Prior knowledge:
The protein is mainly β and 129 residues long.
Amino acid sequence: xxxxxxxxxxxxxxxxxxxxxxxxxxxxxxxxxxxxxxxxxxxxxxxxxxxxxxxxxxxxxxxxxxxxxxxxxxxxxxxxxxxxxxxxxxxxxxxxxxxxxxxxxxxxxxxxxxxxxxxxxxxxxxxxx
Length: 129
């Protein structure tokens, strides 16, 4: 069996060759702190803290606990905290608990929002960082 150090693994840029501005929190991983960027963040694991980027996709096994700010949000997982997004898609397994502020929203049957939900004007899509 080869050791991990002798295996050539692709870099993130190579893995996401068509879209190198991707940050992935994989299943089984928990990130505690702040994530700020200008690309896509895909969450299959857990983020506890602040997430501020342009696009966020939270898959069915993913969750974000804390503050989430983005332009486009696609959720099929769980969010607990404060969300501020221009465009929001809540898929059938989405579960949002807390405060959700949006400009445009789409919600599939089965999605759950427990808390405050508020429509606001469209805002600049760039993250604040």
